[in-house]
């Protein structure tokens, strides 16, 4: 285990964390502002991945693929908001779980009907297929650098949007005190629809960017949903800043757990025990992190409602 | 020696000092009123005393027992019961079930899980007695949530009385009541005099002067003064910060 | 989740959506009262009658349904009566199942020992997890129970001794005792039916005990309960541990039923599914859990016969329930509005 390997894993963790942030940002906004638990957020991520993979294959333009994926997903999300989610804002969280779980079931079958059950193989854009020599002895895939760059850019954009614009002010007002915002005459319905669409766009972007380096398949939305929920809980529900910090934490902890824990255990434990324990500990690392954070700070690192 | 004594209670919310070294004593059997303008920290103080909020500093002693380290439920066992400013009842349950729940908390273990509660004669009798005392027998089978406001407040008091407290905390029992309901509530509190000590938080000055033997004035989280009605009426500072701004109805 | 009591807007929405039509129970009180016994009798006779109609396959299906209903009933107990929205209940089912696996792997063969151990292990596990989780509130509680279940899931995946991801086959059925084994091919069915009946009777009984009333009080107004002198935390923990134990028992039975255990039974979607079935049937209603399980699994089974696309009709059903029957199916059998109200 040398410095180069560690550095490479840090970059991987950063990339994964930033993608988690894209998904978690929408989730935490919808949760924080509308008090709505949307399990179907992962389905939007899945939609982004599928559309991007197919458009990329058909058009050979990755940029076009990402754009179309985002637009299509936002359109789907708008429909979803009008038909279902809008009517859930004031309902109990459990009812929201019930309804959005129903949407997951419908979405999975819809994807199956359109694209079939077999996982799609999404290719990396040709221009970014090769490695970049970052420092001596570390060739790093160019595409993964693009992920990191895109993630950072979006995070910056979100920060500016939330802290500098009127929409962002409404968003913050809604997150910290929805009723007050309503009294002050904020057109809450419009803000909600915008935020939901924004969240969908970010999820779709994450899906489109993740497609070439992950399996594009039914169930990918449910698989990413849980880490994203872990992120928003650690960060404090409703807080973009919290989601950013927590996403990086979870990304790093998860990647580091998988990369360093098994070899570390092999060094101190008998091989049979280490082989069992290593993957288990790596898998649960982020949940341990979450349990620890909640024990110390029951409302997450950056509680939006102080 | 006083029945109840709070010493140096402190509670901070961020930069706001909601309780600023509050000292308070309630004597055996007295009705002690706590008055003060809105935002003075009266409700915070009730929450600190009843244990629903943890105090940052200070001590609470009831009948020689230090309650400070005890949780809210443990304090009830030591004779401290409370009501809520907004009647806190079990809205979807019948009045009978409300009373049974309160009675059950005091008589034996609530971990009993095989015997039907309906078959426990002693519980039913105690609930019935409580209903009779609080004039709630007519509405025993109605859901608490649909009762008129005054009756809900009375049920709230009934729930607290089930604990047979030595000190009863009443947080604005007359809040939002019409004159008839207020009169009934005053009668009820009067009937409790001597049976237990009462710390009464109330905005209705007529009620306060009628019921309370002693009055403490809370302003900005501090006890400004304590004394009988004449003392408080005549206190210059009280007149300026409190009575001057809030004319009794 | 915000305390539903402290948020009147939500309460109004719920009440407004209550069923206006006359309930079955009002029209046919005698029938509804005797229905559980009738259902029990039909279920008891089912293995004998099934061959007449060529339905032998469905004996196994009903057995699975009963086992899942036991797990769902335990979730209904803490969620519906106790107001504890746990999204990790399948984790306890898994602990029960893997306890059976561990005992079989170690050479034990008594069914009663294995199921008893499943119950105890899951109960103990639930007590530990509950002790930590019950210090959080609302959504954070949902999430932390989910997190613990995920930990159990990954633990199971990593246990290569028990097959890891591929699971573990239980090739010889567990022994239930001298005269039970081999007496009739469907003995296990009746054993499951008996256990299920006992579990439902017990939960029904507990609901009307001091403990049951105290749990519902905590669900409806936790602050008031503390101010009445209830040991709120310990009551919730006791309920949580008991429910975990019963879920573990269901897991043990499920291991026997499938003759196979894999981590898939404790995947988070299984926890969500249990939650969904309970809410479909009716949260906090005595017969909510079995109704929801029966409807869900039967629909699933029927849809699978006709189409590969059997998920979306179920999804649509959930949306219909949310918008048309938010109290769940069991509400149709209630004697009066709001009795033992869901929330």
TrEMBL record, chain A:
Keywords: Amino-acid transport, Cell membrane, Membrane, Transmembrane, Transmembrane helix, Transport. Its main location: membrane. It is a multi-pass membrane protein. One of its GO terms (molecular function) is transmembrane transporter activity. CDD domains: TM_PBP1_LivH_like (cd06582). GO terms for biological process: amino acid transport. The chain crosses the membrane at residues 14-32, 62-85, 97-122, 142-162, 183-209, 215-237, 244-265, 277-296. It comes from the Bacteria. The keyword Transmembrane helix applies. The keyword Ribonucleoprotein does not apply. GO terms for cellular component: plasma membrane. It is found in: Cell membrane. Belongs to the binding-protein-dependent transport system permease family. LivHM subfamily. This is Branched-chain amino acid ABC transporter permease. It comes from Pseudothauera nasutitermitis.
TrEMBL record, chain B:
InterPro entries: AAA+_ATPase, ABC_AA/LPS_Transport, ABC_transporter-like_ATP-bd, P-loop_NTPase. It comes from the Bacteria. The keyword Nucleotide-binding applies. GO terms for cellular component: plasma membrane. Residues 4-245 form the ABC transporter domain. Keywords: ATP-binding, Cell membrane, Membrane, Nucleotide-binding, Transport. GO terms for molecular function: ATP binding; ATP hydrolysis activity. The keyword Disulfide bond does not apply. PANTHER family: ABC TRANSPORTER ATP-BINDING PROTEIN (PTHR45772:SF2), CONSERVED COMPONENT OF ABC TRANSPORTER FOR NATURAL AMINO ACIDS-RELATED (PTHR45772). This is ABC transporter ATP-binding protein.
């Amino acid at each position: 285990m040398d410095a180069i390997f560690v550095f490479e894993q840090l970059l991987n963790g950063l990339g994964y964390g930033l993608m988690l942030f894209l998904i978690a940002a929408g989730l935490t906004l919808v949760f924080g502002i509308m008090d709505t638990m949307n399990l179907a957020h992962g389905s939007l991520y899945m939609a982004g991945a599928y559309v991007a993979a197919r458009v990329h294959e058909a058009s050979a333009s990755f940029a076009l693929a990402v754009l179309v994926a985002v637009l299509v997903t936002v359109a789907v999300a708008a429909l979803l908001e009008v038909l279902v989610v809008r009517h859930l804002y004031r309902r109990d969280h459990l009812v929201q779980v019930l309804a959005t779980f129903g949407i997951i079931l419908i979405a999975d079958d819809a994807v199956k009907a359109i694209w079939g059950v077999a996982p799609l193989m999404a290719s990396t854009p040709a221009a970014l297929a090769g490695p970049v020599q970052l420092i001596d002895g570390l060739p790093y895939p160019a595409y993964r650098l693009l992920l990191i760059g895109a993630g950072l850019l979006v995070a910056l954009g979100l920060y500016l949007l939330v802290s500098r614009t009127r929409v962002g002010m409404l968003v913050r007002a809604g997150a910290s005190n929805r009723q007050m915002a309503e009294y002050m005459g904020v057109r809450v319905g419009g803000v909600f629809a915008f935020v939901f669409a924004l969240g969908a766009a970010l999820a779709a972007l994450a899906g489109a960017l993740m497609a070439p380096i992950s399996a594009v398949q039914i169930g990918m939305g449910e698989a990413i949903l849980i880490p994203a929920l872990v992120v928003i809980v650690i960060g404090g529900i409703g807080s973009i800043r919290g989601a950013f910090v927590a996403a990086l934490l979870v990304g790093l902890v998860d990647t580091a757990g998988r990369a360093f824990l098994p070899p570390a255990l092999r060094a101190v434990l008998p091989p049979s025990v280490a082989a069992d324990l290593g993957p288990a500990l790596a898998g649960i690392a982020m949940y341990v992190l979450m349990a620890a954070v909640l024990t110390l700070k029951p409302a997450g690192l950056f509680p939006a409602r102080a | 020696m006083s029945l109840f004594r709070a010493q140096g209670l402190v509670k901070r919310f961020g930069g706001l000092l909601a309780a600023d070294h509050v000292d308070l004593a309630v004597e055996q059997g007295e009705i002690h009123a706590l008055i003060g303008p809105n935002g003075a920290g009266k409700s915070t103080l009730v929450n600190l005393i009843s244990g629903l909020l943890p105090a940052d500093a200070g001590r609470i002693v009831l009948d020689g027992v230090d309650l400070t380290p005890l949780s809210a439920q443990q304090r009830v066992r030591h004779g401290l019961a409370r009501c809520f400013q907004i009647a806190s009842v079990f809205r979807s349950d019948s009045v009978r079930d409300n009373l049974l729940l309160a009675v059950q908390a005091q008589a034996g273990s609530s971990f009993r899980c095989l015997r039907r509660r309906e078959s426990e004669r002693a519980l039913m009798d105690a609930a019935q007695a409580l209903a009779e005392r609080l004039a709630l027998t007519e509405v025993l089978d109605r859901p608490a949530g649909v009762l008129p406001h005054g009756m809900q407040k009375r049920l709230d008091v009934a729930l607290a009385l089930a604990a047979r407290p030595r000190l009863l905390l009443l947080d604005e029992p007359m809040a939002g009541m019409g004159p008839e309901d207020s009169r009934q509530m005053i009668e009820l509190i009067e009937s409790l005099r001597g049976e237990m000590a009462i710390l009464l938080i109330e905005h209705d000055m007529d009620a306060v002067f009628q019921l309370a033997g002693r009055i403490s004035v809370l302003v900005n989280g501090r006890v400004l003064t304590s004394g009988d009605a004449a003392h408080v009426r005549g206190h210059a500072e009280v007149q300026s910060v409190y009575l001057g701004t809030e004319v009794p109805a | 989740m915000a305390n539903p009591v402290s948020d009147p807007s939500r309460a109004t929405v719920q009440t407004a959506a209550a069923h206006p039509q006359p309930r079955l129970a009002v029209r046919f009180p005698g029938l509804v009262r005797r229905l559980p016994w009738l259902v029990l009798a039909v279920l008891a006779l089912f293995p004998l009658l099934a061959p007449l109609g060529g339905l032998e396959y469905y004996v196994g299906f009903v057995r699975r349904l009963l086992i899942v209903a036991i797990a769902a009933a335990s979730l209904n107990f803490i969620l519906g009566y106790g107001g504890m929205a746990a999204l990790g209940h399948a984790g306890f089912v898994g602990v029960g199942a893997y306890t059976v696996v561990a005992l079989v792997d170690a050479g034990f063969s008594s069914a009663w020992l294995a199921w008893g151990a499943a119950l105890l292990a899951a109960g103990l596990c639930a007590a530990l997890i509950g002790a930590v989780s019950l210090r959080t509130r609302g959504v954070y509680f949902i999430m932390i129970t989910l997190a613990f279940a995920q930990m159990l899931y990954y633990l199971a995946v990593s246990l290569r001794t028990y097959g890891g991801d591929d699971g573990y086959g239980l090739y010889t059925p567990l022994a239930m005792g001298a005269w039970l084994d081999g007496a009739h091919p469907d003995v296990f069915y009746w054993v499951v039916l008996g256990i299920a009946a006992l579990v439902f009777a017990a939960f029904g009984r507990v609901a009307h005990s001091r403990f049951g009333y105290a749990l519902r009080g905590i669900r409806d107004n936790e602050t008031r309960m503390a101010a009445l002198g209830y040991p709120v935390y310990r009551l919730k923990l006791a309920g949580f541990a008991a429910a975990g134990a019963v879920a573990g028992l269901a897991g043990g039975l499920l291991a026997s039923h499938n003759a196979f255990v894999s981590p898939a039974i404790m995947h988070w979607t299984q926890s969500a599914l249990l939650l969904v079935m309970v809410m479909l049937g009716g949260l906090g209603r005595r017969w909510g859990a079995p109704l929801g399980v029966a409807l869900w699994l039967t629909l699933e089974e029927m849809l699978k016969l006709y189409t590969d696309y059997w998920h979306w009709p179920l999804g649509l059903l959930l949306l219909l329930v949310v918008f048309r029957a938010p109290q769940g199916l069991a509400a149709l059998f209630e004697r009066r509005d709001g009795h033992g109200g869901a929330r």
